[in-house]
Write a structure and sequence with these properties.
4-stranded antiparallel sheet; 19% strand; alpha+beta; 17 strands; 2 domains; 5-stranded mixed sheet
Length: 383
């Protein structure tokens, strides 16, 4: 018996949309930023379907968005299996990252951070805007080719996101909460205004630029902000490339650098929602109708000044220049600096290996001394 293909493909998954609804809420508000305008015989202009209040199944989807078709045979394997698995893992990953008050938060993030970035990358590319970007940049000739190239482009953002300064901010103390857009993974650069060439549809300021921040709301109360490490320390030269900008490369994620201690003021939540709305393609949605219009409650909408929202309380101090990963018997497995630069020659590798051995010996001596002090203290206490 042949399987029935799916046709309604949500480019913003229903499970993700539900994270932006209040408890026991079954419908929320969606705003069409460019509704169809109808003129009545009396001359009145009606904005058709500008605001709708419905459940998540009715929003953020397109028919056969991820369906391939060869010789009149349709196939939805991309929707069913590729995005099916990404969504399954992504849902668990977002739960882990958003559970910032959990005692097991670090373990949960450790187990799920890779899937978190994989989901973010897929979410950025699977939307109509993301697919339009692929079509433009990779010269897709038809819809089948577009979906093939979308799969090849997957994971392209993960390396630089993993090396960025990551902050999880909270809207728990704000009466206004985060909204969701048809481009949930939003990028913002204070020097690239919405009407600039950097932001002409379907373009965005590249994450390889120092000042490009990636904004990803997790739910009503939490939002992830990723900032290139150089810009987090010194917010200047926003349009210049970050050090060692690249795609599709291995790197190390330092979970100890993640900051999760900042509660946003209402005006800061409004500012983030304003950016999300400004960079949306056509739709945004929120648990309350008033949240769809952040611009009504903001004192300033200056694009450049909004960057101050993202200045962290705790600035990244760096990772001591070099990161080392070792195995058994003090064997060096991998080393890189905070920008992902690895040894370029055998000679350089040997130099790093020697340094790692010296560090290991020094560290073991410190542990030995600490144990001796502890044992001595215990002996005195017992006596």
């Amino acid at each position: 018996m042949s399987q029935v293909n799916s046709h309604r493909h949500h480019y913003v998954p229903k499970w993700y949309q539900k994270r932006f609804m209040k408890e026991n809420q079954t419908a929320y508000f969606r705003l069409d930023l460019f509704p169809e305008k109808i003129k009545t015989p009396e001359g009145k202009i009606i904005r058709k379907g500008e605001i709708l209040n419905k459940g998540v199944d009715k929003f953020f989807y397109e028919i056969d968005l991820n369906t391939t078709k060869y010789f009149d045979i349709e196939n939805d394997d991309i929707e069913k299996y590729l995005f099916g698995m990404i969504d399954k893992n992504g849902s668990l990953a977002i739960d882990s990252v958003a559970s910032i008050s959990s005692l097991d938060w670090m373990k949960g993030v450790h187990d799920n951070i890779t899937n978190f970035f994989v989901y973010m990358d897929a979410q950025k590319l699977r939307t109509p805007k993301g697919l339009a970007w692929i079509e433009k940049k990779l010269n897709a000739v038809d819809h089948n080719d577009l979906l093939i190239k979308m799969q090849k482009a997957r994971l392209m953002h993960c390396t630089m996101w993993a090396e960025a300064f990551m902050e999880i901010v909270s809207a728990e103390k704000s009466s206004v909460k985060f909204i969701v857009s048809d481009n949930p993974v939003t990028v913002y650069n204070s020097c690239c205004y919405p009407k600039s060439s950097y932001c002409t549809f379907p373009l965005d300021p590249g994450i390889e630029l120092k000042g490009t921040r990636t904004i990803f709301p997790l739910d009503l109360n939490y939002c992830v902000i990723l900032t290139n490490i150089e810009y987090a320390r010194r917010p200047f030269e926003a349009k210049k490339p970050r050090t060692n900008a690249r795609i599709f490369d291995t790197t190390i994620i330092n979970l100890m650098d993640i900051v999760r201690d900042r509660y946003l003021k209402e005006k800061e939540v409004l500012g983030i929602n304003y950016i999300l709305k400004s960079r949306a393609d056509k739709y945004i949605a929120a648990a309350e109708k008033e949240w769809l219009y952040p611009e009504r409650y903001m004192k300033t909408k200056d694009w450049g000044k909004l960057d101050k929202i993202f200045y962290p309380i705790t600035k990244p101090l760096g990772r001591c220049g070099q990161i080392y990963m070792g195995g058994k018997d003090n064997r060096l497995i991998h080393t890189q600096d905070e920008f992902g630069r690895k040894p370029k020659s055998k000679k350089e590798w040997k130099k790093k290996k020697k340094k790692s051995q010296m560090m290991h010996e020094h560290f073991m001596n410190l542990i030995k001394k600490e144990r001796e002090n502890v044992n001595g203290s215990e002996f005195l206490i017992i006596k």
